[in-house]
Amino acid sequence: VGAVSLLARMEIAGLDVGDRWQKLAEYLRPRAGDTLQPFLTLQYLYGLARADLVEADMLMAAIEDKATTTVAFDRLVWREVALPAARGVYAHARRNWADAARYLGVANPRLTEIGGGHAQRDLFGQILLDAHLKLGNWPIAERMLEMRRTWDPDGIPLNRDLNLVRSHLAPA
Known about the structure:
Elements: H1 2-12, H2 20-28, H3 38-50, H4 54-69, H5 72-93, H6 97-107, H7 118-135, H8 138-149, H9 156-169
Helix pairs in contact: 1-7, 2-3, 3-4, 3-5, 4-5, 5-6, 5-7, 6-7, 7-8, 8-9
């Protein structure tokens, strides 16, 4: 999952990762049915979907099943947080920015419930922000970037994106 996170963050920052998704996917293929921990499952899903493998669809189906069949407490987390997050990361990986923004927007406020640390879960916030940038949702992107700037005021990709957003918001 560390490699998934790193490649995703590199792409969001504008770097070309070449064929690394396909290479990484060979390690992710055995996880096509792994729904033990939502935080890990979302990253497996993103990597498989970025590699454009059928296993991503298999894992998405397993997540949908988990959201309806697990015990009550787990079912709430899977249904209300992990499932919309999964739909969002899957959509982003497949370059469907609108669905990525919609589903991750629902899941993002509750991501602490899926596990992982703050810095680890931040990947999903970056994916959500990237979707808004790709859609040209400038006011939303500006608010998200300003919030991120409180803990990373000198971040180069962050300030680059903030300048882009402000150029679109400035009166002509």
